[in-house]
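Why Protein N-terminal glutamine amidohydrolase? Reviewers of the renewal asked for a concrete example.
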Amino acid sequence: MTMSAEKATEVIHGPDTCTYTPCYCEENVWKLCERIQQRCSEAELSKCSCVFISNNERKIPLWHQKASKSADRCVIWDYHVILLYHDTPVTLVYDLDTELSFPCPLKEYAAACIGSESTFKQEYKRLMFRVVPAQDYLTTFASDRSHMISTKGEWLSPPPDYPPIKSTGSSNNIDEFISMDSSTNHGMVLTLQQFLNKFQVYL
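Here is what the prediction returned.
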């Protein structure tokens, strides 16, 4: 186990100890950040980033997903959110929805869960990644969960049992994070190759 993996394991002991609600990945990651903030130093939190994965069509394929009912273990999400712990020499992914290890090296995660866009159908291409520093995510993200209510007023998936997350400036800005429009002022928006290059992952 590398030194960075040891540090990360001290912060987040395992998926069974984490706050988790199916289909609320953005809140699961927010809760992971909160946990790191409460248990560790600001220096450790500064090594973490929250990553929204989506595209203009809001249709992204990810493999090795627990929610999959297909043989290839693929799910087409409108967006997905993961936590990165990046410290030399390896970047780790914390994803409570994957069947891969927790944490998982980004190189392994990218190869197994994301794959190559050259094999995607056209509607799934141009994956984009919004990378937001964990501290910024904790202080700016907000969701009233209205995106999880159907036109009939029913929950698409049962919500978490804790109150909705609010920031000092908003009660609902989740669309600004899901959007891959770089003009929304949350972190940086990268293509798949730019994302991998940023974290020095070469497939």
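The chain is about 30% helix and 20% strand. This is the kind of structural detail the renewal will allow us to pursue systematically.
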